[in-house]
Amino acid sequence: MSKRFSKVDSNQPQIVKELREKGYTVNHLHELKNFVDIIVGHKGVNYLFEIKPDRSKKLTLGEQKFFDTWTGQRAIIYCSQDAIDIIEGK
Questions:
Q1: Structural domain boundaries in the chain
Q2: pTM for the model
Q3: What is the 3-class SS of the chain, one letter each residue?
Q4: Rounded to a whole number, what is the distance in angstroms from the first to the last CA of the chain?
Q5: CATH classification (class only), 12-87
Q6: In this predicted model, what pLDDT tens digit does every residue of 13-67 receive, in sequence order?
């Protein structure tokens, strides 16, 4: 039985690259089913981000369930600036 990973969005490599260039630590989480794509750490705080290529792309049912039930921070981002704005409180 092969392990099935969630699809990586086309803009994920660029977003991860740009966040790392800003000094953030980034780990990929897309391999976990029905969870966010990346976790970003900055100054002792972790940020959970689901990456979508554009606003027309909706959360899957599993992703939506996670967003509806997770009581901690989580956000949908479309570019690295979205994540930076959240992390820097803009």
A1: 12-87
A2: 0.76
A3: CCCCCCCCCCCHHHHHHHHHHCCCEEEECCCCCCCCCEEEEECCEEEEEEECCCCCCCCCHHHHHHHHHCCCCCEEECCHHHHHHHHCCC
A4: 45
A5: alpha beta
A6: 999 999 999 998 787 876 778 889 999 999 999 999 999 999 999 999 999 999 9
